[in-house]
Amino acid sequence: SQELEQSPQSLIVQEGKNLTINCTSSKTLYGLYWYKQKYGEGLIFLMMLQKGGEEKSHEKITAKLDEKKQQSSLHITASQPSHAGIYLCGADHNAGNNRKLIWGLGTSLAVNP
Amino acid sequence: DAGVIQSPRHEVTEMGQEVTLRCKPISGHNSLFWYRQTMMRGLELLIYFNNNVPIDDSGMPEDRFSAKMPNASFSTLKIQPSEPRDSAVYFCASSSWGRGADTQYFGPGTRLTVL
């Protein structure tokens, strides 16, 4: 969706390297969700960010929300082969009760051992 | 909890046939979402229900697609007649809307191939 752009589209890194994936919205963000997907499987929830400047971490993955830029970044420290997969961001552009999320096309990550 | 359950996991059918996809949401969740995922268009919301009532079906492609949620523990997505362009992975997700963080939990998906 052009309402939500993810970059890069794909990424290949060497094990142990750090990396960052970005998700930029063309509309006001009321919430931003990060998910991970492995081929042939469903989406696994990673983190949700709601407030500008909010930062959350889970193991070696950190996500941050820049409300001004309408952008979120996902940072992986010391990447491992287990981090490989497709990372998707989902945006809540609704100020009211509509639960519809808009999704980016995903960033495909490969980690070479 | 067993998570969101979808069936079948794979479906291969011929053009013109009726296809029914099934979903059992996580127990206690009151919102259910049907998505379609393709390489070209990514993840698209087709329809979502709140307390078994369809709220937003603006993503349903056309009249060939219909979805029902007869009770809190079961939903179906039906395509009749199916066409090759319907080939995609269909996901069901559920959440506890109104009870804190509205995180959607996804099922494993149904890979549909229409020949």
General description of the model:
The complex is a heterodimer of chains A (113) and B (115). Chain A is mostly beta strands. Helices cover 0% and strands 55% of the residues of chain A. Chain A has no helices and eleven strands. Chain B has 115 residues and is mainly β. Chain B contains no helices and eleven strands. Classes of the chains: A mainly beta (113), B mainly beta (115).
| Beta-strand proportion of chain A | over 45%
Distinct helical segment count of chain A? 0
The largest pleated sheet of chain A is described as: 6 strands, mixed
Number of continuous helical runs of chain B: 0
How are the secondary structure elements laid out?
The complex is a heterodimer of chains A (113) and B (115).
Chain A (H helix, E strand, L loop, with lengths): L3 E4 L2 E5 L4 E7 L5 E7 L5 E7 L5 E4 L2 E6 L4 E6 L8 E8 L9 E2 L3 E6 L1
Parallel strand pairs in A: 2-11
Antiparallel strand pairs in A: 1-3, 3-8, 4-5, 4-9, 6-7, 7-8, 9-10, 9-11
Chain B lengths: L4 E3 L2 E4 L5 E6 L6 E8 L3 E9 L2 E4 L8 E7 L2 E6 L8 E8 L9 E2 L3 E5 L1
Parallel strand pairs in B: 2-11
Antiparallel strand pairs in B: 1-3, 3-8, 4-5, 4-9, 5-6, 7-8, 9-10, 9-11
